[in-house]
Design a protein that fits this description.
Chain lengths: 246, 172
């Protein structure tokens, strides 16, 4: 048998058990006799020729090869009285092969049912069209509907307000650069300002926030100095002069 | 309502549904006992077989469904060219066989028997609607349990899983 032949054929098997069953069948032996036959040797030969398989299936074939080698080594070594202690790997493998064979045969039987049943056709499930539901408004006057509508509207003021606010805050309406210039402008004009005054003209939260960030930024750059005499006292903001720096 | 009328009503319901319909639901609708309906259904099935009718009624577990007579499949195929049903791959049918006989069963238990990873097959069978997830096993990791579906019964022309042939356990 050629090497190429092995590669092509091993992929046709559903796994190591399938391959072993195939070899048992070809050797015309009972599953029980697998370890006194050439089947395990043949299996190892197949697996040694295997290199084009995916890692996942390869590992399954290799794991079985390791089991077979282990069983072989046990047969060569003198037997100790461990039989009762641990699971007998030979009997376990024979059991697995038999179990697999049972379900493989069951699968073959299913194929027969499948072939027969594929000649039966079914209609696709119908989407039953129920009569359209009509909305009936009973015991309700036009005035009542109008009142109900107004009540719904009345429940929305918060949402409405938020939406208006969102419209007002246009993208980049306030930038740190522009707010910094504004603060500098005030300081240049008056020399000093208070924290409260700086925000007194702010219209929106965004304006406050951006102005505040601009102020922090200017402090960071040592452009302004902040002074507060005590807790909750007015905060004074003044422009740092060159002399004051450092 | 006499038996003929019950049969007629049942036919019209099954024709309109297309899908499988619970026997007990139909019985309740017709205001008769389920047992009475079942015996009428058996007579209908027999009559349709005898008359070589083009439409048969089959049982899918506790449901009834209308289908075509397989005798005429090649005429349907010639006239309408319906989408050919695809057969399952070897790995899918092996996986399905294990699920069918051992249900409810976890993927690990399937892999123990097959000796190979079966996640692809299981996912493909779920995708095809042949198996369903049926809760989780109360064991380490709470693995998903799988059972066969009505579609499984239809795909293999079985009335219920009880109709699966006995496993050949003689060698085990």
């Amino acid at each position: 048998m050629e090497t190429y032949d092995y590669k092509v054929r091993i992929e046709q098997f559903e796994g190591p058990l399938d391959l072993l069953l195939h070899l048992v069948g070809r050797a015309r032996i009972d599953i029980e006799d697998i370890f006194v036959s050439e089947v395990t040797g043949q299996y190892l030969e197949y697996v040694s020729e295997m290199d084009s398989l995916s890692m996942e299936s390869a590992s399954e074939f290799l794991e079985m090869a390791a089991t077979l080698l282990y069983i072989k080594s046990r047969m060569i070594l003198p037997t100790e009285e461990t039989e009762t202690e641990e699971e007998d790997p030979e009997q376990e493998l024979i059991y697995r092969l038999k179990t697999y064979k049972i379900y493989k045969e069951a699968a073959e039987a299913l194929k027969g049912f499948e072939t027969k049943a594929e000649r039966v056709y079914f209609k696709l499930p119908e989407e039953i069209g129920f009569p359209e539901e009509k909305l009936m408004i009973e015991q309700m006057t036009l005035e009542g509907l109008y009142a109900a509508y107004m009540e719904v509207l009345g429940r929305q003021p918060e949402a409405e307000a938020e939406r208006i606010e969102e419209v007002e805050i246009r993208k980049d309406a306030y930038t740190i650069r522009e707010r910094s210039r504004y603060i500098l402008h005030i300081l240049n004009q008056y020399g000093m300002t208070t924290f409260g005054a700086l925000f007194s003209e702010a219209h929106t939260k965004l304006e406050v926030a951006v102005t505040f960030i601009a102020l922090l930024n200017m402090m960071h750059k040592n452009l302004v100095s902040i002074q507060q005499d005590g807790c909750f006292d007015e905060i004074y903001i003044s422009k740092r002069t060159e002399e004051a720096v450092g | 309502m006499n038996d003929d009328m019950i049969a007629g009503a049942l036919e019209s319901i099954l024709f309109m549904a297309g899908d499988a319909v619970e026997i007990s639901d139909i019985a309740a609708t017709l205001e008769i006992e389920t047992e009475q309906l079942e015996s009428i259904v058996e007579q209908m099935m027999e009559k349709r077989r005898r008359e070589r009718s083009g439409l048969h009624i089959i049982r899918v577990d506790s449901k009834l469904q209308m289908c075509t007579n397989q005798e005429y499949s090649h005429y349907i195929e010639a006239a309408l060219a319906p989408v050919k049903k695809s057969r399952l791959s070897q790995s899918m049918i092996e996986t399905l066989a294990i699920i069918a006989y051992k249900q409810p069963v976890t993927r690990f238990e399937i892999e123990q028997i097959r000796g190979v990873k079966s996640s692809y097959s299981v996912a493909a069978l779920v995708e095809k609607g042949l198996i369903l997830r049926a809760g989780r096993k109360k064991t380490l990791g709470n693995p998903v349990l799988y059972v066969t579906s009505d579609e499984f019964l239809r795909h293999f022309g079985l009335r219920s899983v009880d109709e699966l042939p006995e496993l050949n356990l003689s060698e085990a």
